[in-house]
Amino acid sequence: MRRLRRGSCSWACSALLVALAALVLAATPGRAATDDQNLTGLVYLADESPLSAAAWANNTSFAVYVNHNGSWSTAWRYPAWPAWYLTSAGAYSIVLPAAQKDVKWSNGDPYLVEFDASTISGVQGTVDNATSHGTGDPGEFSMSGATENAIVWSSRDNWQRWDVVVLARPDYVPAQPQPGASARTALSSPLNFSVQVLNRGNTTAATASTLALYNASTPAAPFATFAVPPLSPSETSARFTASWTSPSAPGAVQVVAEVDYRSELVEGDETNNEYTWTIDVLAGPITDLVLGQPNVIAAVPYVTSATTLSFSVVDQSGTGIRNTTYRVDGGGWVNYTASGPFSSVGEGAHRVEWSSTDFAGNVEAIANASLRVDDTPPTTLLSVGDPKSAVGGTFVNESTPLALAAADGGVTPVGTDFLSLRLWNGAWSAWAVYGSPFTLAGVDGVRYVEYRSQDLLGNQEAFRNETLVLDDTPPTTTLSPETGPFTPTTSFTSFAMDAGSGVSGTEVRIDGGAWSPYTTGFMMAAGDHNVSYRSVDRLGNREQERTRAVHVQGPPQPPPPEAANLKPFIAAAFGAVLLLVGGWSARRAPWPTGSRRRLRAFALAAMPFVAVESATGLVSLLTGLLVIPPLLGAGTAIDLGILVAGILVSAYRARAGKPLT
Fold first, then answer.
1. C-alpha span between 42 and 21 (Å, rounded)
2. CB 451 within 8 Å of CB 463
3. Which CATH architecture has domain 476-552?
């Protein structure tokens, strides 16, 4: 199928450009022309070759969509769905019917042309769209008048371009031909050729095609033809078989099977339609070794010890085959005609030789073939990537890659065909072909992985089982003691628990400092602290940081020492001053009467003050009353009062020279 796509506005961008039609417009802006509103164009394929040098077929269905309001979902269709216009009036032309040429299209409205590509390409397909876009032909009107993807109204022609690209084609090729590329047969003997047809293209053929088988020397005279129905992509037809008769003279003859013999299809590749057999026409018997199932065709074919081996003999003499004999690995000759099919025993390389004899006495030259016997299945290993832990089991997390690798066993291994696996997570999944490394997902817990491999001969390994434990959960850490009070001698310890792979380590930091591995209990100085801690398991699952505020109390403070009581000392000092002043005053002014007048004056005028001051000091010493400090307390006031009174009395006597009365 071919479909239209939007082309480039530059001649240098692509060879896929073609001219699309000029619109001769009415003189009045905003209205279409009344005569030749034609859309024309030459269509090219993706390989730059013209699709056809002939006109588009008359009666090709087409329609025009005009976008009046900027939304293609509401574009007007001419004619209204489901009607169609039909092409007419010459090569490559699409002409709007006269009844629709005077529609009120606005200046600059974008439009689409829609048509059925099958009427142009000859390939049945769906309706395709092509978006037109102005290119501006300088010979017709100024480039400034062109608007991309729009109709531009002008009194001159507005040339447009479009291109058609074939995006999908069938591609028929011969498949599974039988016999092989070369074969041997007798003179004038029938030989069957069979082949299937495979569509390697990317679309279903629109029609049936012809398969022909012919001698390469006479391609115009096929000896068999078959009708091949349309095939979808990757579909293989039924097998077509034809009988061919070899020439009467020995020699090499080529027989050709050609799909799409009559070129009914437009294919993506027209060069791969043929398969050629080379047939050696021989006069004597021709014997071929036939491999049963299972087998793998290679330079040296592979079989198992259960593969049946037989012979296909062509009696080209027509007198019948007396016998066919064979031997394996140089052993004794065995009469195959009497014993029938056989098999190879024992792994490794083997050599089979055979020959047939007809009743005419023709003895076939000894033919041989090498075979490899492989009865050993592959061996599959599961590799567990990182992170993983093998302590107490095999632990993984959701990012651990799991990979399977298989190596085929045996003396001559044929090679691994595929690996398969299934998973258990409460229930078994279906077996699936392994393609690339995988991971486990879901909730934590036990998983079982079963896996096996099969080689190209179908030797299947007994399934293997691996137990894994999924662990995506980090540890949980606690800090003890949980409650205070705490002192600088309190030892703080952490304890981490992990239900999966186990704790790998714990880290602690204090007051936002650097993380350090936790090994044993720790203490902190008095004060307020923030203790952070976290743990990680053996798979690297790290716990979110936890933080606890801790207040550590200091030791009890001793009471402040009591201040020394200075009152007794001050009283003694003041008493000494009063003694001195009293003695001075008694000498200056002795007592006027009696004996020992100075002593009497001292005892009567000074000693009372000395005695009172000494008494306050003794009372303060014994009772703690009137203590000094404080300096401005009662003790200081009383001491100063006694001192001042005593000094004033002594001074007054000394000045007046007489006792107090």
1. 10
2. yes
3. Sandwich (2.60)
Report helix, strand or coil for 29: coil
Residue 182 to residues 18, 142, 246, 273, 508: CA-CA distances in angstroms?
49, 68, 14, 19, 80
β-sheet bridge partners, residue 26? none
Terminal alpha carbon distance of the chain:
153
153 token code pair: 């109204």
Who has greater pLDDT, 212 or 4? 212
Residues 533-558 pLDDT 10s: 999 999 999 999 999 999 999 877 77
pLDDT of res. 17: 25
SS3 576: helix
For 180-191, write each residue's pLDDT tens digit. 999 877 777 789
- 283-301 pLDDT, tens per residue? 789 999 999 999 999 999 9
Residues sharing a CB contact under 8 Å with residue 624, sequence separation 6 or more, in sequence order: 565
Which of the following CATH numbers is that of domain 286-373: 3.40.50.150, 3.20.20.60, 3.40.50.720, 2.60.40.10?
Answer: 2.60.40.10
pLDDT at position 541 is 96
Nearest C-alpha neighbor of 539 from the set 494, 475, 478: 475
Strands (E), 127-259: 127-131, 133-134, 160-166, 172-178, 182-186, 190-199, 209-215, 224-228, 240-245, 251-258
Dihedral of alpha carbons 408, 414, 415, 420, sign? negative
Whether domain 172-282 has CATH 3.30.70.260: no
Distance CA 120, CA 111 (A): 21
Indicate the domain borders of the chain.
1-167, 172-282, 286-373, 378-470, 476-552, 567-656
pLDDT of residue 209: 95
Please compute the mean of the pLDDT values over residues 632-657 and round it to a whole number.
83
Alpha carbon 324 to chain centroid distance?
61
Residue 220 tokens, joined: 């115009």
Instruction: Look at 201 and 429; give whichever has higher pLDDT.
Output: 429
Task: Check: CB of residue 157 under 8 Å from CB of residue 138.
Answer: no
160, burial (CB in 10 Å: exposed 0-12, middle 13-18, buried 19+): buried
Q: Please check whether the two domains, 172-282 and 286-373, share a CATH topology.
A: yes
Q: Identify whether the C-beta of residue 448 lies closer than 8 Å to the C-beta of residue 407.
A: no
pLDDT for residue 136 is more than 70: no
β-bridge mates for residue 309, sequence order: 291, 342
Q: Please give the Cα distance from 552 to 655 (Å, whole number).
A: 73
pLDDT of residue 21: 28
Rounding to the nearest 10 degrees, give the CA dihedral for residues 545, 546, 547, 553: -130
pTM: 0.44
The 10s digit of each residue's pLDDT in 490-502 is 999 999 999 999 9
Number of other CB atoms surrounding residue 93 within 10 Å:
17
Alpha helix locations (H) across 321-465?
A: 336-339
Which position has the token pair 């020959």? 355
Structure tokens at 558: 């001793």
Helices H / strands E in the chain, number of each? 6, 41
Mean pLDDT of the chain: 78
Residues 459, 444 contacting (CB under 8 angstroms): no
State yes or no: pLDDT of 634 exceeds 60.
yes
Taking the CB of residue 634, how many other CB atoms lie within 10 A of it? 15
Q: Select from 2.60.40, 3.40.50, 3.30.1560, 1.20.1250 the CATH code of 378-470.
A: 2.60.40
